[in-house]
Amino acid sequence: MEQLEIKLSKHLKEKPKSENELGFGHIFTDHMFLMEHSAEKGWHNAVVKPFEDFTLSPAAAVFHYAQTIFEGLKAYPGLRMFRPWDNMARLQNSARRMCIPEFDEKFVLEAMYELVRVDKDWIPKMEGTSLYIRPTIMAVDPFLGVHASSSYYFFIILSPSGFYYADGVKPIKIFVEDTYVRAVIGGVGHIKAGGNYAASIYAGDAATAKGYAQVLWLDAHEHRFVEEVGSMNIMFKINGELYTPPLRGSVLPGITRDSTIRLAKDRGITVHEEPIAIDELYKASLDGSLEEVFGTGTAAVISSVGELTWKDKKIVVNGGKMGQLTQELYDELTGIQYGKRPDKFGWTVQL
Ligand SMILES: Cc1ncc(COP(=O)(O)O)c(C=O)c1O
Q1: Which atom of ligand 1 is nearest to the CA of 299?
Q2: What is the DSSP string of 320-339?
Q3: Ligand 1 atom closest to Cα of 255?
Q4: Are the folds of 4-161 and 172-337 the same?
Q5: pLDDT above 70 (res 168)
Q6: Quick one: which atom of ligand 1 is closest to the CA of 256?
């Protein structure tokens, strides 16, 4: 079994003065986790150490062929975490698909807990804030050749964060992208590979420039069936029932998606995981049966969608306001995450 070394920083950084202006992903804590992999030693040298830059060869594989995967989860006030073992399992699944050597999930989970404990004073306390955790694995062989690297860095960094969208919990506007696609079945859309996000920036930037928070991707074949949003899965309430696209290999299996489905079913709501055509959604918005739309994701939690633009058509949802079910699911999920409501599914752990 791997040993975890702890090297504490002698120069602690100044913490942000106001939790109101944390934003997302700008600030990093005093420490990080790092573990190396080599062909001879496997995973080794696991350490929690002061946060610092890497020195890498410009030939490092990650810079050229993007053999890199990551995760995103949070620690909440009271040193509480939400389904972190599921993030580790998803990272392992991403590793397999990207030919990255498997790691000991239990060991890394414990190491991540240790890192969060070391930097616990960085967990913000204000409602809606948390300590965002970013585990990443990248290929570092200094060799130009398209093949699996033999050396890797597995690191975890922490970032105190506020709301993901600039407008906080206000319903967001989304652009339905019908030219560019995010992923194809048989590709890597179901894992958190860095390249998926690089490939999404072009359409994302164009949508942002037009005043939208993110894009809603459609399927790669017909550009008709809804897939997911930039960093969230998507759900529609139609005639009192919940609809979300199925996990067929091009959509990320979101942990918040799964939690939301279970919370909705627990409330007696019928949930359909089935293909949803954008033209049908448009019709549902015209006849009034499309009642609510929201995205689900660790960073964005449950984000109400007030408006979707598809071609020249505008789909305004619930008068642009957050719907009642969206609000109830948001309250229930964050209630469990922040330890204010009973955790009957055993989703949380307190460190
Ligand atoms: C593309 C994509 N879809 C969905 C999600 C939501 O997944 P989760 O709920 O596990 O955060 C994320 C965020 O990780 C994402 O990057």
Answers
A1: 11
A2: GS--HHHHHHHHHHHHHHTT
A3: 10
A4: no
A5: no
A6: 9
Q: Is the pLDDT of residue 139 over 80?
A: yes
Domain ranges of the chain: 4-161, 172-337
What's the rounded Cα separation, in Å, for the pair 87 and 273? 21
Question: What does the DSSP assignment read for 4-27?
Answer: EEE---SSPPPPPS-GGG--SS--
Residue nearest to atom 7 of ligand 1 (CA): 254
- Ligand 1 pocket mutation, candidates 228, 232, 235, criterion most atoms within 8 A of CB: 232
With a Cβ cut-off of 6 Å, ligand 1 is lined by 72, 228, 231-233, 252, 254-257, 296-298
Whole-number Å distance, alpha carbon 98 to ligand 1 midpoint, is 18
Percent of the chain with pLDDT over 70: 98
Confidence class of residue 42 from pLDDT cuts 50, 70 and 90? very high
Radius of gyration of the chain (CA): 21
Locate the ligand 1 atom nearest the alpha carbon of residue 182 and give its number: 1
In this prediction, residue 165 carries a pLDDT of 65
CB 39 within 8 A of CB 28: no
CATH class of domain segment(s) 172-337: alpha beta
Length of the chain counted residue by residue: 351
- In words, the CATH class of domain 4-161 is alpha beta
pLDDT tens digits, 215-252: 999 999 999 999 999 899 999 999 999 999 999 999 99
Q: Whose CA is nearest to atom 13 of ligand 1?
A: 231
Average pLDDT, the chain: 95
